[in-house]
Amino acid sequence: MRQRACPFGPLACNRVAFLSDQLPAWLFPKNRFPLAADMLYGDGMSRFSTLRAPVEARQEIKKSRFLAHAGPVGSEAEAKAFIASHADATAGHNCWAWRIGQNYRFSDDGEPGGTAGKPILQAIDGQALDRVAVLVSRWFGGTLLGSGGLIRAYGGTAALGLRGAETLPLIETVAARLECGFGELTLLQSRLGAVAGVELAAPLFHAQGVTLAITLPKTTADTLARMVTDLTSGRSTLKFDEP
To answer: Are residues 53 and 35 in the same domain?
Structure first.
């Protein structure tokens, strides 16, 4: 099991070299790996996506059965819980990988080093996915696959599930606090809550009025701040947390 943080971003070119000679080209289309400096579009939209819901895929290779489970995760704890909940005690190996931003881990679970966990991680990166965990279980069928065969089997089974999965784009967000009067709360909650990507926490009432924690897309931050000011004639403000 390994953990490293890549200083160049999740799809830096040195990630690609491992698979380029090991896995079939159809898993990784040409020009699939942009440079780290290009990871965000100018509008703040990430080129990465996450899974909308858990998916699975299975295949049989020389009588060995491979079953992949993949799902969205938001933290290391969620990734561990996902892996633990889908690991099968009857399988000979439960190999896995997860990525959350620049943090990732993978495990070969007894397979030869570099033949299982790393190909699974590369399958995640090959589909430009983030905040995703993948577990691939193997039931041995009596025929040795060799290192190259294992790499293709584990990476291919993971990719088989991920390629057809429904995804959601990841959006860069910022945190803010809304300070408003009691009489303005309902209007502001209604207007802000109608904006895509805005998440509102429960309001905190105090003697001076109301404080509301908000998470919103970075690209709409300035526009929403002006909207709050205009709707309340300057009586309410949207204050952004320090990065």
So the answer is: yes
Name the domain count of the chain: 2
Report the residue count for the chain.
243
pLDDT beneath 50, residues of the chain = 1-45
Q: Which residues contact 87 (CB under 8 A, 6 or more apart)?
A: 94, 96, 135, 137
Q: What is the pLDDT of residues 38-47, one digit of tens each?
A: 333 344 445 6
What value does the mean pLDDT of the chain take?
Answer: 83
Task: Indicate the pTM of the whole model.
Answer: 0.64
* Closest-CA residue to 137 (of 159, 158, 122, 166): 158
Residues 81 and 179 in one domain: no
Between CA 193 and CA 200 the distance in angstroms is 7
C-alpha of 194 from chain center: 25
